[in-house]
Design brief:
alpha+beta, Multidrug-efflux Transporter Regulator, Chain: A, Domain 2, 3-stranded antiparallel β-sheet, 3 helices, 3 strands
Length: 71
Amino acid sequence: MTRVVFDDKKFYTPTRVAELLSVNRCTVYRMIRSIEEPLPAVRLKGNGQLRISGLELNKYLEEHEVDPLNE
């Protein structure tokens, strides 16, 4: 499986993250709203849209990596 690496200097919309990870957009919002280990996101002033830091995405994915052979 190809590993997605996000640009640490960019911010992504939940929709774009979902596209790049090949998951439903609702899954990304669920990751953000998680009580135990939320994916950090920021809300923009004015329009209130969410953005996710590439750096935080890379950290989150590394911490939550699953080895399918051991699952």
